[in-house]
Amino acid sequence: MLSKEQIARRIAREIKDGQYINLGIGIPTLVANYIPDHLQVVLQSENGLLGIGPYPQSSDINPDLVNAGKETISMVKGSSLFDSADAFAMIRGGHIDMAILGALEVSENGDISNWKITSGLIKGVGGALDLVASDAKLLVAMLHCHKDGSSKLLKQCKFPVTGVRCVHKIFTDLGVFSILPEGGFKLLERAPGVDPDEIRNKTEGRLVIKGEIPEMTGFQ
Amino acid sequence: MLSKEQIARRIAREIKDGQYINLGIGIPTLVANYIPDHLQVVLQSENGLLGIGPYPQSSDINPDLVNAGKETISMVKGSSLFDSADAFAMIRGGHIDMAILGALEVSENGDISNWKITSGLIKGVGGALDLVASDAKLLVAMLHCHKDGSSKLLKQCKFPVTGVRCVHKIFTDLGVFSILPEGGFKLLERAPGVDPDEIRNKTEGRLVIKGEIPEMTGFQ
Amino acid sequence: MINKEVRDAEDAIRDITDGSVLLLGGFGLCGIPEAGIQALVRKNLKGLTCISNNAGVDDFGVGLLLKKRMIKKLIASYVGENKEFEDQYRAGELELELIPQGTLAERIRAGGAGIPAFFTPAGIGSELAEGKEIREFDGRLYLLERWIKADFALVKAWKGDTAGNLIYKGTARNFNPLMAAAGKITIAEVEQLVPAGELDPNQIHTPGIYVQRIFQGAGYEKRIENITVSP
Amino acid sequence: MINKEVRDAEDAIRDITDGSVLLLGGFGLCGIPEAGIQALVRKNLKGLTCISNNAGVDDFGVGLLLKKRMIKKLIASYVGENKEFEDQYRAGELELELIPQGTLAERIRAGGAGIPAFFTPAGIGSELAEGKEIREFDGRLYLLERWIKADFALVKAWKGDTAGNLIYKGTARNFNPLMAAAGKITIAEVEQLVPAGELDPNQIHTPGIYVQRIFQGAGYEKRIENITVSP
Question: Which positions in chain D have a beta carbon within 8 angstroms of at least one beta carbon in chain C?
Fold first, then answer.
């Protein structure tokens, strides 16, 4: 089973040279720590920045420089700042290559629910709707199950849906999954020490396991 | 009868403190020379400038600073530069208070034809369509007749129409006219030495003359 | 140039009344019109409609207006960090309209730019699409969305001049330029107000045409919602 | 950051072919991609569709492409100062689509921003409205207009960095930023190319994400169409 940091490390391997990427709040934010140095990639913050750098040194905190999670950040060389309409023009216009988002649930046909909901009340829709409707390749990072043990990989989403048929791959603490064109979660990789039966037990939606499923490497 | 410069001088009296104004090519451009110094007004150039100044000194010519007529210009203090989408957002969004345009023809219900047409070929539609469709108060500056003596104040426009029911006032070498809500050119002022009969003879559309029409002052 | 300078926040908001519709700049607590909000709180208006990406926190930003029960309806994309909001909403005292952030930004941009409606893919398949016109373009589905305009826009910039030109700083720009263009009366507060002519025309983010009133605020707190540092 | 630098104009336009659809920045002769146009002329392509506010003059700008009969279709708002255009058009050798300048700008902006269609008042009552959908909003009529995108955009800026960030100068900005966002491949030429990190992030007009290739041009003529001076 992977820790959240390990899920982030695994996702970082999906990143290709030259990509512009939007990272959501939670596990996706951690991905930034594991992007290999030799790759040229740019991180977008949808409140108006291309070129997110690491968290600042405490002496360099700037209240006028925050990310979409309202955390203080820094900028890398070659950054640019813009307004919120321009930020979403970039997303909607297909200029962002990849979006890595957290989720409450994913359905077997690739629908995603990831709105912040507190005791039945939707607390916000934020920027996710634009990201899931864009041309950005959508990767989902989440724990495989809710705290009560119920699966987050479902036949159909139970929470309100943020986007339909938009998820490309899912990265959980148990494995990596793609969405099959005909519907269903295709298991691509297992987390170290996790066997396919455990994944089957914890996946409510249709799970497809074909042949030998490789165990992820590099987490020993 | 007024010269083009005098038409421009007369129009300048319509300008009110605090207005943002777009001046078209031709007589309208001349209006800038006659805006009283005590008025705070800003001239927009729809290629991307607020705050057009006078033509530059020959030592200050800048190829990267032209107006919508592609003439070299200068900027006044407090100017701002922007792109063409923003320039027309200003116009379309109702932020420009007044537009002063040239015209080929105006009809008695306030339609305007002002496209550049050469031997039957429309050579350009330019920015006029956005201006005439905006909330800007539309003043037209033109000679009363074509070179062949035919009237430019018509029942109906003969050239393709740029905008419908949009003209507020017309300023020609013969007089000043408003458009009546029910249709018709209402004569407001006569040019010095021009009598109403001459105007009647040179106006093809419905002309309304009520009571004594004052002669313009200040052109002696 | 046209001089837009007013004395202070009180003077700037003098004609905002009960029931006014307001656009309020900022993202979270970053780039919010602190002085304008405080002046509104002192004026203690009722029945405001506020359009703001967020609802602030309980004791800062738009949260201050919520706390005084000045807001009748809130239009926002995310109202997470605010308990006051939740209580009033559950008690049925507050209307809420949630709009996807990109759609909110574009609708406000459309309001300023004279575009009454446009099509966007965001929201297709979600419950936010209910009751909205859907149309296919080039094989893809889009929702029709309307412009947003308001009686007043309150925005915050870094520098401004007396002609109303504004320059923002960092990610404090966010919704401010869009809102500046979509307010019938736009009130800009700045950290530094300079005479017209001192700002480079090539670096202006909001041209002065969009700003009806400008003043220099004082004592900006610039509260940070989440302080995060590198080890 | 991602390095977008290419050697020169030839390298930048390497995959533009006969029949490509091009966006060409500039207003009149102000802010046009001089180096890119010259490289296209040398490549002597055929059947291009060019989207440009103007058609240049007979011996400069887009006029050079017309002269070599490289253009099949021209989409513009004004084609006044060009005799070559008129001859080819009258001979039926050239298609022309005239679009109101504000609508042209907004359609290109929409292309870059992922807005497939929007409503605008410009053109209502004119022959340009023929065949277009008309709809009433709040008692006023508007036309439905579609986005414009292209295979390539050729834009010209004042300064740029290797990450593709651009800063324009004066009114040479015009259509360039819009077109930069609406090209599938956007080629930027600049007067000064600097390493990423040397431009102030707060002053960038076109973020590097929109630019796929950038090079420093040389020997800009910057021809002026109408030299006007004060006495």
Answer: 106, 110, 113-121, 135, 137-138, 140, 142, 146, 167-170, 202-203
